[in-house]
Amino acid sequence: MHVIIGGCGRVGAQLADQLSRDEHDVVIIDADAESFDRIGSAFNGETLIGNIINKDSLIRAGIEHADALAAVTDLDNANLMAVQIARELFSVPITIARLFNPQREDSYRKMGVTYVSGTRLVARAIMKQLDVDTFPPHVGFEDGEVDIVEMVLTEEGHGLTVSELQARGGLRVAAVERAGRTRVPAGRDQLQHNDLIVAAIRGGRTSRKARRLVVSPAQAQRA
Length: 223
Fold this sequence. Notes:
Elements: E1 2-6, H1 10-21, E2 25-30, E3 46-49, H2 55-60, E4 68-71, H3 76-88, E5 94-99, H4 105-110, E6 115-117, H5 118-130, E7 137-140, E8 146-153, H6 162-169, E9 171-178, E10 181-183, E11 196-202, E12 214-215, H7 217-222
Parallel strand pairs: 1-2, 1-4, 2-3, 4-5, 5-6
Antiparallel strand pairs: 7-8, 8-11, 8-12, 9-10, 9-11
C-alpha cells in the first residue's frame, strides 16, 4: 500500500517505522524537519516537509494514488481537515484521524470519520486496572463491548478442553502459550495449569463460573 502519514510525533514515527518494516510505501509529512529524527534508522520510506492540510503537500506525497492516509498530528482540526481532503478531493479509500477531544466523537461518527481516540482508550485501560474483577486488555475496542485479554489457567482448570473453558467462561480462545510456544488450539485440546491464554471476552469480564479457572497474569504471579 501507498500510505501517507501526517505528523511525525511519537505516534506518527512509530507508525511509519512499522509500516516500513511491513514493506509498505510510506510518506510521512511534518512541518518541522527535526521531527523526522524520531524515525528509526531502518525506515526506507520518504520524509516530506510540508503541511498535512495543504493540497500541494499532499500531491507531492502522492495522494492521487494513495491507498491510505493517517492524520496523527497533535491538532484535532488539522487531522479532521486532512482526512476530509483525502476522502472528498482525492477519494483515498482508507482515512484515519487521531482525536484528542472525546467530546467530538459523536460529531466524527455522524460525519463518517474513522478515528482513534487516545484519551478514551487510556481512560478505559486505567479503569480496567482499577477493577479487580476485570482482565487488563491485550487489545481494547473503542465501543467497550469486547476486549482481547491475556489470562492464566489455574490449577482448578487443569485438564479442561478449550471448548469446556469457553462454555463455562463465556469467552472465545484465540491462542494458547505453553513452555514458550504459542499455538491456535482446537476445541478438543486440553489445557494445562499455568497456560497463558489469549481470549475475547465481553467488557473484560469472565462469568462467575470461570473465576476459579482463570486469573490475570498479575494475579498468577502473586499466587
